[in-house]
Fold each of these.
Amino acid sequence: MANRGPSYGLSREVQQKIDRQYDPELEQILVRWILAQCGGDVAQPAPGKDGFQQWLKDGTVLCRLINSLHPRGQGPVAKIQASAMAFKQMEQISQFLQAAERYGIAATDIFQTVDLWEGKNMACVQRTLMNLGSLAVAKGDGLFVGDPNWFPKKSQENRRVFSEDKLKEGQSVIGLQMGTNRGASQAGMTGYGMPRQIL
């Protein structure tokens, strides 16, 4: 974590709310996937949110992960090196984020560099990695390693083509959202109660 003092008041409440979104079960799934995807050259992290953050903080694991989702030799991050210098670590994280966006992750689903480096919003980091895993499964290019059931399935386009006759037939049908013209009639109805007496 960064060298910051404790937060108070509203800042503390907001940070606690963000921290409650972190999912330890999702952390275990993501760790299993990253270890399987990157192979044996990545060490296992310490359990817990802080261990997960320290494991990913320098950006090397993330860069290896995004490179493993591309064919060998075509990885988007050319130079991966561990460094103790803060700006080098943050540069590698930002290289991962740019590569993830090019891979197909929406810009709104990507965490900020400081979310990971300072450990401010690890739940957002989890969501980005989960979206990356879902997208890797959905691409079906054979580069995904692990269990596809670890991630939610991305929706696929299901385009339908109707003939002109079918389209004209649909114009004469009353949609059930507008009600129906069958089964409702006033046949046999009588007035309820006595009519109002005006004197």
Amino acid sequence: MTFGCTTFSLVAHQGGFSAAYGTFCMFVWTFCFAITVFIITCEFTHLHSCLSLSWGNFTAAFAMLATLMSVTAAVIYPLYFVQVGCYPIGCEVRDFRIAASVFAGLLFVAYAAEVFLTRAKPGQVTSYMATVSGLLKIVQAFVACIIFGALVNDSQYGKYVATQWCVAVYSFCFVVTVVVVAFSVTGKTALLWFPFERSVVIYTFGAVLLYMSAAVIWPVFCFDSKYGSPQRPSLCAKGKCPWDSQLVIAIFTYVNLLLYVLDLAYSQRIRFVSHL
């Protein structure tokens, strides 16, 4: 909480931010700070007992999400706003931005340490979101958001039916993953008429198959010389090149495929508890 407050205070006071990247970083720091304050308040006052939430699942899911968001902001802010020289922003602004970047890194370390310390240990019965499988669900959804960001950045996914199928795969898996997280966090899994844990394993297996198809189709229709370009076009402008977006999508498709495979492997060894 202290690191988050210090980071956005430094940026708001003198460091400054601009454009979508800076706005995203400020949103991350303020969002994480606000939810952390909410969690601490509920822990001390026991207000969480009045909420329609599975508190163990909620806190575990937030810690993982905050880790991913904070590491993204910790990379983006210094990359776009920190410079070695003082010109043209001035030495004082530069120093504030460097300090904000340091505290942003410490914020990520703090959240990552929380995830490490609170994750489910082998043989321990705990809430689903604290297990490796549950934490991977958050990472999968986060990676899917990166893919969607690249898709809307002039990726030309509508050019072929095959690439549209890949978009359907990304969308379907993202929606179902979010639904799984939502049911876990709200503690409503016991109300379902089907076994939630078994259904999640079946879905994960299906997601592996779907992502395998996308991992084959997307590179072929984007980088094969028959359909796309194996190399980056020399006339492509930086930041506005469809090939760059297609490459990002291809990379994170394989990342998410690996995450779903790991999820499937770990999900065979967990025991689901809905009320923690």
